[in-house]
């Protein structure tokens, strides 16, 4: 029997398993599909909230810590698996920001290198970007990750670790209680037992916890994205304008996102979203009008009432933990939120104050 059973094989579930295994624990991870193939695959990979100054201080604390971890994590995974997560640290240009005073004040308070720049600066950095306002904001330290490859690298690493058991295509069908305590789950591959259970099921976490009579206020929020096959180097940096962004990959693929839709667990794409995303993309990079759209897809974010994730033990179920509800910031917050949970699991001094994230009765009421 493992020390820990993790339900959910996204980046958060896999990073939890990696950190526990690094600490000498025996871990079983079960995933109903293939690891890293849901929201962790579908997002854009920006290693920051889109407009970080608009978030509560606890989110900023997590994101700042995670941002510092990703370069080292990417290097470790490349060296140990041969799979390059393609961490790129080329900065982010913010166009048409209407609360730039708030942004600059936030940056000064946190010591972040966010500065106001003019159109000439933007054109120097990105000659093919269309800027319609004289001023923009520039954060030179911001990075991005090729998130599908991050998922592939984490999966390969876990498969190579003798203290980790990875069970994919393994659907959880119910929980097992013994003496009033949760001791495991029934799955499509049989019974899996462990000393403690960790739910990292993203948008599906509420359904999993409903079997324990826990009402977790996490819901699916669909996001559609597209990717152009553009000439390599057309855009070098992440550019954000009016809530939409373009993210370059090293091979010329240019991601554009994203929509926000309350459609339940429907992941279908549609022509209306495609047209809207193309319009946004071509307003940022006019040259994309001559480039083909290579891909169009959708994923489901785990929405929570205020965007603050639930991280910690469940009330009245002290050996059942949750790490879910990151909304648009799952990849952004993953290293820090998993570290914070593992601190609790292993009774270490926590990374930051865990109180704002705990799934208390008051927070579970939404």
Automatic annotation (TrEMBL):
<feature type="domain" description="FAD dependent oxidoreductase">
    <location>
        <begin position="3"/>
        <end position="343"/>
    </location>
</feature>
<dbReference type="InterPro" id="IPR012727">
    <property type="entry name" value="Gly_oxidase_ThiO"/>
</dbReference>
<protein>
    <submittedName>
        <fullName>Glycine oxidase ThiO</fullName>
        <ecNumber>1.4.3.19</ecNumber>
    </submittedName>
</protein>
<keyword id="KW-0784">Thiamine biosynthesis</keyword>
<dbReference type="GO" id="GO:0043799">
    <property type="term" value="F:glycine oxidase activity"/>
</dbReference>
<dbReference type="Pfam" id="PF01266">
    <property type="entry name" value="DAO"/>
</dbReference>
<dbReference type="InterPro" id="IPR036188">
    <property type="entry name" value="FAD/NAD-bd_sf"/>
</dbReference>
<dbReference type="InterPro" id="IPR006076">
    <property type="entry name" value="FAD-dep_OxRdtase"/>
</dbReference>
<keyword id="KW-0560">Oxidoreductase</keyword>
<comment type="pathway">
    <text>Cofactor biosynthesis; thiamine diphosphate biosynthesis.</text>
</comment>
């Amino acid at each position: 029997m493992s020390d820990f059973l993790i339900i959910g094989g996204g980046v958060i579930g896999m990073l939890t398993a990696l950190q526990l295994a690094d600490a000498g624990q025996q871990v079983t991870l079960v995933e109903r599909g293939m690891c890293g193939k849901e929201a962790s695959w579908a997002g854009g990979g920006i290693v920051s909230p889109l407009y970080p100054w608009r978030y509560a201080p606890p989110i900023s604390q997590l994101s700042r810590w995670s941002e510092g971890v990703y370069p080292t994590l990417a290097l470790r995974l490349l060296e140990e698996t041969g799979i390059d997560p393609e961490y790129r640290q080329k900065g982010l240009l913010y166009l048409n920001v209407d609360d730039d005073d708030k942004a600059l004040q936030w940056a000064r308070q946190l010591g972040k290198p966010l500065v106001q720049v003019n159109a000439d600066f933007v054109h120097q950095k990105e000659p093919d970007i269309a800027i319609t306002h004289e001023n923009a904001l520039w954060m030179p330290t911001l990075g991005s990750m090729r998130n599908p490859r991050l998922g592939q690298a984490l999966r390969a690493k876990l498969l190579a670790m003798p203290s980790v058991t990875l069970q994919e295509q393994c659907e959880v069908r119910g929980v097992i209680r013994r003496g009033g305590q949760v001791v495991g789950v029934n799955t499509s591959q049989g019974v899996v037992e462990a000393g403690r259970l960790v739910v990292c099921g993203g948008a599906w976490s509420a359904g999993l916890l409903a079997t324990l009579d826990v009402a977790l206020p996490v819901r699916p929020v669909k996001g559609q994205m597209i990717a152009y096959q553009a000439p390599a180097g057309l855009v070098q940096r992440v550019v954000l304008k009016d809530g939409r962004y373009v993210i370059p990959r090293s091979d010329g693929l240019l991601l554009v996102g994203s929509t926000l839709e309350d459609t339940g667990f429907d992941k279908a794409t549609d022509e209306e979203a495609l047209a809207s995303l193309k319009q946004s993309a071509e307003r940022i990079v006019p040259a994309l009008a001559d480039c083909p759209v290579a891909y169009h897809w959708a994923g489901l974010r785990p929405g929570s009432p205020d965007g603050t994730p639930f991280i910690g033990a469940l009330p009245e179920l002290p050996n059942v933990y949750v790490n879910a509800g990151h909304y648009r910031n799952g990849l952004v917050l993953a290293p820090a939120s998993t570290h914070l949970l593992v601190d609790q699991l292993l009774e270490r001094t926590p990374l930051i104050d865990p109180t704002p994230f705990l799934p208390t009765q008051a927070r579970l009421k939404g």
